[in-house]
């Protein structure tokens, strides 16, 4: 601001052109709808060619509007697709619990249980303590999600892979394009 140059002016004009061209685009936050948090969680398995780490992807809705989402490489190599899914589930469960607390602090009621949609039946069945021997290597993530399910904070739902909203974060664009193009998503014209 103290020494503006032609390059700075070009950037400002670029920003102004963008704002002018996107006046009819906005983020939709409906005032009505279910006052509960709903999440979609997904992961790929060993998707990184170099490290063989899996990718976590999830998104959280409140009143049908996406309010939080994340896409990241997992911190460690998963030994199974179930473990990769559980790491993703654990991550989004932490986010949902945190968001519910924030909403509560703001005086916005949020009903329980919160819904978590997952497209891996092994990950859903791993919540059952009887199946613990098959998932010992998943460690603390299983217990965290299991505790949230057992105390009624989270309700797990199976969702077909083709209906998995979080595929947008973990699959190539071409495989998740069907959801992206057909959804209400976040960007909506005001007309």
Report what the structure shows.
The chain has one domain (27-189): Ribonuclease H-like superfamily/Ribonuclease H (Nucleotidyltransferase, domain 5). Helix content is 37%, strand content 21%. Helix 2 (81-105) crosses helix 4. The chain has a five-stranded mixed β-sheet with strand order 4-3-2-5-6. Strands 1-7 form a two-stranded antiparallel ribbon. The protein has helices at 6-21, 81-105, 121-125, 140-150, 167-170, 173-182; strands spanning 25-27, 37-43, 55-62, 65-73, 114-118, 154-158, 187-189. With 191 residues, the protein is α/β, with parallel strands linked by helices.
How can the largest sheet be summarized?
A: 5 strands, mixed
Q: What share of the residues does DSSP label as strand, in percent?
A: 15-25%
- Ranges where pLDDT stays below 50 over 5 or more residues in a row are 173-191
Radius of gyration: 20 Å
What would the CATH topology be?
Nucleotidyltransferase, domain 5
